Amino acid sequence: xxxxxxxxxxxxxxxxxKHLLKEDPSEEIIALVWESAPKEKWPTERPGLRVIPVExxxxxxxxxxxxxxxxxxxxxxxxASSVAQSWENPAxxxxxxxxxxxxxxxxxxxxxxxxxxxxxSSGEIYGREGHGGRPIPESAPLRPLSPxxxxxxxxxxxxxxxxxxxxxxxxxxxxFNHTGPGRPPHFVASDFxxxxxxxxxxxxxxxxxxxxxSVARDxxxxxxxxxxxxxxxxxxxxxxAYNICSGRPTKIESILQTLLGLSEVEIRVEVDPxxxxxxxIPVIIGDPTHFxxxxxxxxxxxxxxxxSDLLAYWRAELSS
Length: 320
Fold this sequence. Notes:
The chain contains ten helices and 13 strands. The chain is of the alpha/beta class. The chain folds into two domains: about 1-180 and about 220-245, Rossmann fold, CATH 3.40.50; about 180-215 and about 250-285 and about 300-320, UDP-galactose 4-epimerase, domain 1 (Alpha-Beta Complex). About 45% of the residues are buried.
């Protein structure tokens, strides 16, 4: 069995690769990394793991790699993934996410015996309308509010279209917020932990700058999320969309208070207007019932443990 992972230089993929090597050590992994990514972010080649640099926006290069490697399962994680950054450069988000996936699907559909393809969609695609803070099922309408969310909604629909039109066995994972050690600091929980670690080491004054603390999100640990990716490839039904989430809302203020409670110093908090986003959604909670029923997956790691591990990660990074 040959499994191909796009975005293998990214945060989630680094955990997915470790998980697959542990659970299925005899199977081969082809790790596609962004050719412009720093090489220290690339996974280390070893027996059973081959690393290939690529630019997914280059259709010819993607086609050549697929023709050579002929994967049985594809995990498509590569994406520009920051909501905040999508407001600054929406064209880049659309090109990276929508065109990049199109090039991949076009190359895969030309393979004899199309592989199973697991796509990274997002809980952001549901928007704010219609659910009133209740857990959102996969049947809810898609009403994206940011350029990032619109790009993921397009990827989601694109994957379903390739299933309906070409019979490609695509599965869409609508991923809600997830974090853990190694998450880049432009994501909220990691940003908080990074600021605290900087304050503790004297790299910045004892003042944290934050955005809107009143919103609530559905958080899971990245180590639970990569179990979902593997289970989707083994037990998910082609053509389906699945929410990957805990089913529990957590206010951003609660995340901040938990991390501050773990801090070794007194820290003041100040709202920074530049961190406030247009079109912010007050509450997003997913309903994971469909995926749990089909695969047996459940989120297991408590958020308090995730946040403790995240802060420990940044303390170690800044002390090295």
